[in-house]
Amino acid sequence: MIERTLSRLVNGFAAVGLVISPLAAAAQEAPDAGGLNLPRTLSVLGQNDPNLRKPTAVVNGQIITGTDVDQRTALVLAASKGQIEGEELQRLRTQVLRNLIDETLQIQEAKAQEIEVSQAEVDQTYARVAAQNFGQNVQAMDEYLARIGSSPASLKRQILGELSWQRLLRRNVAPFINVSAEEVNEMMARLEASRGTEEYRLGEIWMAATPENREQVVENMRKIMEQLRQGGSFVGYARQFSESSTAAAGGDLGFVRLEMLPSELAVAARQMQVGQLVGPIENSGGFSVLALIDKKAVLMADARDAVLSLKQISLEFAPGTTEAEAQAGLQKFVAGVGQMRGCGSADEVAAAMGATVASSDGIVLRSLPEQIQSMLLDLQIGQTTPPFGGLEEGVSVLMLCGRDDPQDANAPSFDDLMSQLEDDRINKRAQRYLRDLRNDAVIEYN
């Protein structure tokens, strides 16, 4: 989110006067134009300034330019592995413009309420994002954004908008949210009564809809679903498109029980498998796309929280190895792994057949890819997974050398549940707050 100067601009643009500007004397002969019928003397009607960009929208006097839309759209395109072109790209740009308008309203409201976010704070957050993605190299982040057609300023404005809105809600909404001790105690009792039932970690992209724009919102959500199924980043799309307060967290709702969700979402989530996407689902005055990130039993130990010690035994194929040669090598590799007698003999046997061994301790099973989790879940100490890999990357097996199983989970604390209920109510108030800002805004479109 870029910080823009909040100068008041004249609504609309002055009409461009008719300018007569001969480019050549009448007596000159017209140059050869390759068959084009051009006059000897040109009269230019208006000024053609390539450095002038007309606004896409003016929000309470503040300009959003086509460049702003281009650079923010580039961030979304970079988060999506699929190609977005034609009408779909135009729909994306339309949604990005809506997001920028909301973002502008949030920043303007924070400033009107004398809530300041310093440039130093924005830069610090930007540096943290760069550290997560490019080590400590902020310049590499700058160069990446320029390479994809965006800019550091565009991302910093997004950061500014999020920080401004969070502080505005913290001051103007959160203090007026009341959750009683009785409500929390009732929730704790229900939680204990539901011990052993499943809770779901969900990601959500939510967009508000009115009777007037309902069909357009549904179409936008369907296009988002298509991009996500083609490998687009759910977190990236949630940050750019979701109108819920969880957008800043990439749409992550955390672990929730189905009775805490709107009935429409609860019905869908109950039928989902981990990694599955569903949507658009109509609920709460809008539509949602859901992603099931994980699920577990309430207040029960989850085997996927086990901490493992593993050895990876790998065999690489030389360049030029044929498929038949690889199959023969795989059979020898499997036979060699079968001769291992636990982790103590793995290194010796692997060396004898030209394989390598890598050891790793303290791995939480849940952090591994879903397919690997399934293979390791029921292994005993000293056993190996089936081989996996291919001709180019080689083949590997994982051997289980140790497992620390988790204990039964404890119920969340009183304060945790209090915070969860407060966050839910703040989210609902935030949606109404932004709707009111839209209703009161003076917005002009180019």
TrEMBL record:
Pfam families cross-referenced by the UniProt entry: Rotamase, SurA_N_3
MF annotations from Gene Ontology: peptidyl-prolyl cis-trans isomerase activity
Top-rank lineage group of the source organism: Bacteria
Keywords noted in UniProt: Isomerase, Rotamase, Signal
PROSITE patterns named among the record's database cross-references: PPIC_PPIASE_2
Annotated signal sequence range: 1-26
Keyword Ion transport: no
PpiC domain span: 197-294
InterPro entries membership: OMP_Chaperone_SurA, PPIase_dom_sf, PPIase_PpiC, Trigger_fact/SurA_dom_sf
SUPFAM superfamilies: FKBP-like, Triger factor/SurA peptide-binding domain-like
Name of the protein described by the UniProt record: Parvulin-like PPIase
